[in-house]
Amino acid sequence: MNEWDGTSWAGTVTKAETGSFVANLQYGTYLSVLSRSPQKIMCEAQALYHSNLWIRTAESVVTRKAIGLPWHLEDAEDEEIPDNASGELGRIVALLEKPQAALPPEQRQEALVTHRALWSLTSRHIGLCGMAYWYLDQIDGQGIPLAILYVNPARVWPVETENGRIIGWVLDAKDATGRGGTPVPREQLLPFYLDPPDQGAYGQGLVAAAWQKAQITNLADRHAAYVLGTGGRLAGIVAPKVGSTILQEQYEQLVREFRVVNEAPDAAKRTTIVRGPIDFIQTAADPAELALIDLSKMNRDDILAVWGVPPSQAGIPTAGGLNSGETRKYDEAVLMQGAVHDRVQAIRETIQYRLLDRWQPALIVDLEIEEPAFDDRTPAFELAKSSLNIPLTNEERRALIGLDPTGDEIFDKDVLLPVTLVSYSAGSEPEPVPTGLPFGKATAQQRRFLGLRRSVETRFVPALRKMLGEALRAQAKVIATKVRARGSKDMKQGTWWGTDQEDERLAKVLRPSAAGIAEIVTKRTDELLSAGKAEGFEERVAARLVKRTGERITGINATTRDAVAAAIEQGFADGLSPAQVGDLIEGLPAFDVARAELVARTESMFAYNDAALGSYGEFGVAEVEAVDGDKDEECAARNGRTFSLADAAGIEDHPNGTLDWVPIVGRAYLEEPRKAEPMVDAFTATIRAMQAPPTVNIPAPIVNIEATPAPVVNVAAPAPSPAPVVNVPAAAAPIVNIDMAPVAAMIAELKQAFLAPRTPLIKTVIRDKDGRIEQVVEA
Q1: 90: which of 85, 506, 633, 700 fits an S-S bond (Cβ 3.0–4.6 Å)?
Q2: 0.90 exceeded by pTM
Q3: Distance between CA atoms of 45 and 698, rounded to whole angstroms?
């Protein structure tokens, strides 16, 4: 029984009908498009709350959280109004705390006399039906009620004008059109909405979006109950095998026995013995064939998603790892800041703006519902991490995470950057970054080797990290898929791990990077040690480097394989399903961004040192000097020491290390490069060319003098003195005069042309009415 039983709008009992159309009408899409009134839809939504487990669970979680939040009233000075306040303020507090206390007992709704009960039912119907109503009983001239009663939204029809404006309400109408019933003034019925309706006065509840999912869940439960009720027997056809015959009398007896067996409640306990072979053809799918378990989980998650309730907040066990505690906190924040916040706001705003504001301007009363604040500082720290390579002051970086300056003026204004950043400009050598080497002991030429590793790391690590991240994610997905498919039946290592396949996966990423590093290092070494160039050494260095990279790939994958094996063993030991173990594998640290970063930096470091030492050896370098930091004892102990090339090749730095090698060579290898001439602008170059002493080519005069040596012609450099004198022995000396005035005039004219201001050329485009160009005028 419910409050709408016996009313005309609740529907009538009709004769049961069967058939495909009726089934489709009842459970398919036809139901939503037929002439059902909004009131009947609300009745069905409320009924689903009581019959569908997951709709009830989702709605209960949201309503319980929303109504459980503390609340209070505040006056115009934002001071909290106490519960024992007197006068009109006390009346307002009492109306919300005990909404029906002012009514005689016989007029109260016994289940809704408290604040919690009234608000709970209001919140529930808001979620299910999209709306709810409060009846403001015995309002005075200002619209202020004496008590508050609840009205089920399925009992209310709006009275609207032709243009859709609501002018009143009708309670318990006689028919589906809203005629008859009890009229209620517009200001006496207070509607609550979860979301504003698209049109009209009827809200749309969450059940509308979950209707089909709810029907699938109900049908799956019904089918499972039927199969269990018959002891696991399924419908089918029993017939004699082909070629065998059964006498009529035996056939009739067999029919009776099978019917008794199948229709009896204890059918699973009965045994039927027949004479002769028979066939049984199953005509119904069993729960396994229908995948009812997976279907039920999918419908459950979909319904919870419609309400905005994470499964963990509905009491549903979820797969978890070492970081699952933070995940559950995040789920709680999603629930409270999403579904619960929306519900609280719908209730608070309606009570505030449509009820409490009726006391204004005489009284100003504000309803405050205290929602929890989730101080999740993860985004702030992620922002600070992302800005690591940006030149910010310490004061600016602390401000990103909400911290005040330290007060130390020098520290706050200091700009710190990672040691991996190195200054580099086109056409110049990288500037070395000190890493512990006493630069006073290193020659200027040796310092030129120090910046190479950092430029290699800056160039290769970002791209390598990205490609490694994609490779590790693909690796995790392949392994997790195999585990989910095979389950715990056969979890030998070979079933989920392919050594050759995984080695090749990483090789496709690391080998090209190693080859690129080898090319850069060998080229730079050739430039710095050109005096002892070894022909064809680049190919030999690259080949050794690729081989060493392949050996390290095997070690990287061995680490990954061991981590996955431990996770699989622990997951199944903890009772996790194959799907949950698959999720656990995909969340392992072996496949995260930090692992990709570590491998990218470490492999770049190994590749650089292998290429550098190999290149030095090709040029006959016998000794190298270690350049390392002082982060640990091992690094500090070898920093600045000299090692033979063979010993250095056997030293392997730790992951994320800073070890670098500087060759110890003679002066012949390290000639200072010739400095480039300073560049000059075009004007200066032109003027200098024209001011240079002119070149005068004067052919030697032909003098025929017998028995005399060839004449010698001496041409003096031009000068402001008289024209040059040409002395020809044994002949008259010819006089050559060169006039420099035209040359000086030309230089002055060119200089004036270069220095004179240029008048800009202005072009005006004239177009026709269609936008086509007709004329271009230059000015």
Answers
A1: 85
A2: no
A3: 115
